[in-house]
Amino acid sequence: MAMTLLRVQGLCVAYGGIQAVRGIDFEVAEGELVCLIGANGAGKSSTLKGLMGLVRPQGEIWFAGERLHRLATHAIVARGLAMVPEGRGIFGRLTVAENLEMGAYLRRDRDGIRADIARAYDLFERLAERRGQLAGTLSGGEQQMLAIARAMMGRPRLLLLDEPSMGLAPLMVQKIHQTIASIASEGVTILLVEQNAHMALALSHRAYVMESGVMTLSGAAAELRGNADLRAAYLGE
Amino acid sequence: MDIFTQQLINGLVLGSIYALVALGYTMVYGILELINFAHGEVTMIGAMVALTVIGVVMGAAPDLPGLMMVAAGLLVAIPACMALAFGIEKVAYRPLRRAPRLAPLITAIGVSIILQNLAMLVWGRQYISFPPILPHNQHEFLGAHITDLQIFIVLISLLTMAILVLLVEKTRLGRAMRATAQSKEVAELMGVNVDRVISATFVIGAAIAAVAGVMVSAYYGLAHYYMGFMLGLKAFSAAVLGGIGNIAGAMLGGLLLGVIEALGAGYIGDLTGGFLGSHYQDVFAFFVLILVLVFRPSGLLGERVAHRA
Ligand SMILES: Nc1ncnc2c1ncn2[C@@H]1O[C@H](COP(=O)(O)OP(=O)(O)O)[C@@H](O)[C@H]1O
Ligand SMILES: [Mg+2]
Q: Facing residues of B223 across strands?
């Protein structure tokens, strides 16, 4: 098996007195697409925020052999993590092009940035058409495309996606799937958070299931799709 | 002489100074939703430092052209104000970043009182006069008079605003500032060191304030430890008039407020049958502030009404 890129041990996230994540362990290997599924309020977003240092976590986070613990978010980003937050986090009053440039904020290779922006426009022609428009005028699906394209502008080693299909029409959800699959096929390691377990399991190599701040199940995605409990709880069967 | 045109010119000159100070309020508000009431005092410190430097230069090289002396004053006042604002943000506001909104606001008022008192200790209670080193020639302009000094002030203000707009719209730092103003969290996710961007915002606003402080003391011919108070309140009113948080709004609000004030002062005697004189000039800013807050709290160019309530 490939080298472990991310290893998390005993991760806890709390908001004041509310324990959102209660000591979870998981890992993601280089090149893997791993999903984290669970109902609303299970602690999935809190887990990602803890990884990115947006909330102060407890426990051990190792990324590419280095401890991320207590680093500021921008320093974590500099080490090769990127996150597409829940609700997309588009800069609505910046243009589409400026949003993409923000994704490359820490890069100094102008030519490389220009090439990557061109590539993003090839991949998402809607963004190309709207490059000079304020990002706030895009549709939900287009904003999600932009959010993913923007995160990729940082050339991350590990991409965290928080419910990228949330609130999107089925056709758009499909397009997002394809995008995630194609990013993964380029060798980018992905940790995908979803409530939509069908979609997530279909895309992923492995999966973790989270409930009330703890991990309740984990395994190969194909196996989990056959798991009776999981089917009952998350696949509506 | 055409009183209307004359007051319009006077108003635009004064307004361009208000606009400069208003930019500092609006930039900080745009990023932190903090009304930095100490900003008027930073402007005052800029004027005081520049005047001190001008005094020294006059003593050392009395034959130097006046513009060079003012440039020397600016060259010291700008970095001094930048350092001051950097320190204020770090010491007074940053520890309160997550505190309830009233805490930094009260702190801002405290900082402003401290700066006034420090300035009083350093420069004394008396008015300090701005030496008449700048050319004061009058020119006929559209049936009114405009002086070299007025032209100089407007040009410097426009230049400063143009540099700021370029910085905000075209540079990496400017983009990071606009992104941070929209979401600190997402800006961090892009790799932006938000603390640094906030520092930069204070520092840039202070540099502009230093320019404004020098302009206003040159215009009125004097400086005083208390001058930042009224100037700050007026600039804040201008920022609210334009839509606080909005850079173009601060410029527009500043110019408009200057014009409203000048026209108001020019005509208040006629309007009240001589009951009120032009020394009531200062009330117009607050009259405008109240009207805006009642009828259009988002200001002329502002949008985020609900968000700000
Ligand atoms: N900023 C916050 N302040 C307080 N509680 C929060 C905050 N964010 C999330 N929570 C709580 O933490 C728990 C986990 O939330 P979250 O991580 O968003 O779950 P999920 O992403 O799985 O839906 C929930 O009970 C939620 O109410
Ligand atoms: Mg969530």
A: B128
Within-domain flag for B143: no
Q: Are B153 and B161 in contact (CB under 8 A)?
A: no
| CATH code, domain carrying B287 | 1.10.3470
The pLDDT of residue A165 is 92
Yes or no: say if A157 and A3 are a contact pair by the CB < 8 Å rule: no
* Shortest Cα–Cα distance, B179 to chain A (Å): 6
B95/A199 Cα distance (integer angstroms): 44
Domains of chain B: total: 1
Measure the CA–CA gap between A130 and A111, rounded to whole angstroms.
Answer: 22
Residue range A18-42, pLDDT digits in tens: 999 999 999 999 999 999 999 999 9
- Domains of chain A in sequence order: 1-80+156-237 (3.40.50.300), 84-155 (no CATH)
Beta-carbon separation of A106 and B193 below 8 A: no
Q: Which residue range(s) make up the domain with B103?
A: 2-131+148-307
Distance (Å, whole) CA B178 – CA A99: 11
Nearest-by-Cβ selection for A52 from B187, B189, B192: B189
Within-domain flag for B138 = no
The residue contributing the CA closest to ligand 1 atom 10 is A20
**What ipTM did this prediction achieve?**
0.95
Give the tens place of pLDDT for each residue, A67-117: 998 899 999 999 999 999 999 999 999 999 999 999 999 999 999 999 999
DSSP 3-state assignment of A39? coil
